[in-house]
Amino acid sequence: MTSRGVDLSLLNPILERYRGQQDALITMLQEIQDVYAYLPEEALARLSRETKVPLSRVYAVATFYSQFYLTPRGRNMVRICRGTACHVRGGHRILEAMERELGITEGETTPDMGYSLETVACIGACALAPTVVINRNTYGKLTPMKVPEILGRKDKKERAIE
Amino acid sequence: MAADLTLFIDGREVRDQPGKTILQVATESGLYIPYLCYSPGMKPYGACRMCVVEIEKTRGTPASCTTPVADGMVVWTNTPQLQELRKGIVELVISEHPHGCLTCHRVELCGPQDICLRHVSVTDRCVVCPKNERCELKDTTRYVGMGLTTPLTYRYRNLPVENKDPFYDLDMNLCIVCGRCVRVCEEVRGDSAMGFRERGGLSLVGPAGGSSLLESGCEFCGACIDVCPVGALVEREHKWEKAVERVSTTCPHCPVGCQLKLEVSQRGRVIRAIPQLEAGANRGQACFKGKFGLGFVNSRERLKAPLVRRNGSLEEASWEEALSLVAERLSGYKGDQFAAIASYRGTNEESYLLQKFARSVMGTNNVDHSSNLRPEIAEPLRDVLGYAAATNTIWELEDARCILAIGTNTTEDHNVVAVPVKRAVKKGAKLIVIDSREVELTRYATVWIRPRPGTDSILLGGMLRAMVDEVMEDTAFLRERCDNLNTLKHSLWHFDLNRVEEMTGVSQEEIRLAARTFAQNGPAAILYALDNVPASHREECVRALADMALLTGNVGKPHTGLYPLRPGTNDQGSWDVGCVPHLLPGYQGVADPAARAAFQGAWGVELPQSKGLGVREVFEAASSGRVKAMLVVGDSPGFSNGELGDVLEAAQKLEFLVVQDAFLTGLAQVADVVLPSVSFAEKEGTYTNLERRVQPLRKVLEVKSTQARPDWWIVCQIARAMSAQGFDYASPSQVMEEISRLVPLYAGVSYPRLLSQRGLLEPMSWPNFPIPSQLYPAQGGQRASLQWPCTSQESGDTPILYAGGFPRGKARLAPLEVRDVPIPTTVEYPLLLLPGRVLHQPHRGAEIQVAGHKSYIGRDELLEIHPSDAADLGIGDGDWVEVISPGTRMRLRAQLTERALRGAVSATLLFGGLASRLESSEDPDPFSRVPGLKVLPVRLEKAV
What we know:
The complex is a heterodimer. By secondary structure, chain A is an alpha+beta fold.
């Protein structure tokens, strides 16, 4: 069944893999988010029905962790580190450059759903400061000049990720 | 119960049993420890830390709500250190809660807390909180002694008040996130409609995802309102009104007989209902009907004076005139041309008096109660087991290992019974639901079987056959306590599973699975209401269920047994006191000369001996002129929903009709005399609930400025006006004395016993402020009630029937036969509509729309059709279709699915839709006319 363009059949492998394991809720939510890039309401409802975890509980968990998103996000996730080390090495300038390049501010998504931009406190790679994480790739020792370049690189190499 | 441990709380010696927590023991002995997240009736949570105490020889300050008591414990609840800790907690709590009313220094000067308009800022004022002075936060805050000197400002959340739900207002600005509502919904009710959201400082409670409870699986039981310590969750109706009095009584809406505390406002209105924690029937739970459906008591449309028909129209008259007219006219219809019908909300005393009136004054057995539409529901139990009643108590269901619910829409019709069922499922019990409709309980079912409508008894026969085939019977139990095993087994040979499969449409595998699940998971209990079972099959169905319980040894033990779920509030009591056409009080046949002689001796008159007409036959008899005069007490859903045929037309054929009612109902409008009766809240009496529990109705309101009178008084006056002896009762308690003399089952029932109570501190002394309201609900007392048989004033009651044996020595297993199923469809209406109502359909969102003050659900409802049926009618997936039944029309969207039964279509509407429709109803008493889920013959037309 599809509604509002969400293809719920993509859930089947996840639900199948964790059948009967109510305690795997967070893992399931993570995998669902990998599929849709966010947690569509319909998918959560289906998850609740199949696992018999009450929807209110699913919702409570999904809103508790900041890693889960209930609204659609861009296909690519850009996270800019604002930890102390990165800040000292000019992380705020990287953020400004990124905002200029994408035309959005922190916490927003580009209108074409290409990119979402957010900041994180520290990614634990302080030796590489200032750093940016795009999807699962980490870029270090950045300067504002390199920002358009890494976005372009990503475009070619990482388009495959939904 | 002997106390076997002693502890000292604040220097006071307290004796109690082990297994309780310090907080429980303290509050039960009248010592106050402040708390917020704990709520009596729920498991301790230990989150708020308000209830911290110091225990000598123990480190730190443990929370008293989670610390069990131990012998010799020395507990201090109010040391400077504890107060300092609590102060810190309260400061945090009220840093996000408007607290002018909590910390205002004028609070004691102002008095009633309803006049302050200017001392504090707008959002703080006493008058802007709906829980003003009912709030539990005030207890804790004042206990800690928080004054305005506390340099506090608070952050107002500035959230809009949610008012889309039919009965609730949610004001999250007042929420203190104690989580009581979330826990009561999950832990106690088993619904989980509420949850936490977000985290840390942003955490709040609310329904999942959407903002409205209507789309979250909420059944509008009001449990979260009852536990909310602040004004975040409140009833919308009478939200701002303040109670001056609280009286406990019995809910008049269904046979569960919930004990409610009704709050009365200064203007003499019932403004709120709070279910009673100490009550054995409902244990602090209620449902949408009891919680929100008592507004009819306050209705302005209530009748104020007797009405007499003069020149074709009803006009007000005096009681003397009306009574003498009734007496004079009724004297002309003695014998079988008269019939009396008692109310489905009638008390035991009223039903008793009405049958006494019909039998001794009018000389006829034509007497029945209006909800007795399925007399077969319990009658066969008398033959098989001994008593026509439920065998066990409602809350025993909680610990059953298997529950079979057949043909019952429990969540709507007997809501509180569904609570222990859901809790049992949560504890791992199996739930077998046999119903062709999708009802709310199917969501929790381990096995859901959908037989063809009307074939339930055949399916049950098949299950019994499967049990016998696989030797699953309890042989020891059968040998010791049952007769007729071979007759039953012999009769089961007709239930060949191939044949059963063919007739019911349920596969043999499913039948065997259900049989195994039931037989192998003891203790097992059976709930049934016989919804949609054709009349000719009902007795078979009940016999099969009784056989099943006996065969598996599930009778006379805790957590087992049979629960016939009748429709009317006091059906059980009406049967007990003989308000049925074929039985005298105490289940003694009218044809039995010995029984008749006993009553003739007691009542001093000759009694009729032929069986009378019941409510199902009487209106037909009225149409045909056999019955010429009737006395009808109260309204009944059956009078208007067609279940009894065209009642109004039949009533118009009567030569003389007297109606006793609180409202001018359809039937009252065609009556010759209408006598105004008072509602349940203004009279005394007793109800016997579905678990045989006799509970008192108390006078909550005085009858003000109207001439309405209790039904028992009216019947007595009519009898006295007809110069009958034996109707000189001063109060219902005297009627009960007579009942207990004549009915052995009620021999030990008396008003003094029912009105006594143990350990309750009630009523609240409202003016004596500030009394911690938290002390009251925690009292471990118990409200008195008696479950019959209660054979003498000294003896106890009987929660479990047949525990010590059957009245006849052994139970008699009943043989079964395969009966043909009448086909309810016709050429004109070839399909069967299986209506269903569920709380929540996860894959289908609902949209709440608000129009004026009302909200309703804007959603395309689906009609499931089997593809081959659809093909015959030329209907495609997603087409709009009109579902036409005799008298109704619905527009639904077709969904083709193999899941649907051939020849039947099913529609599932949201239960919340029922709730919002009830709220918007103009009917003065809409809850008595909740539409049932009846299988209907329909035809489909493609809509254009």
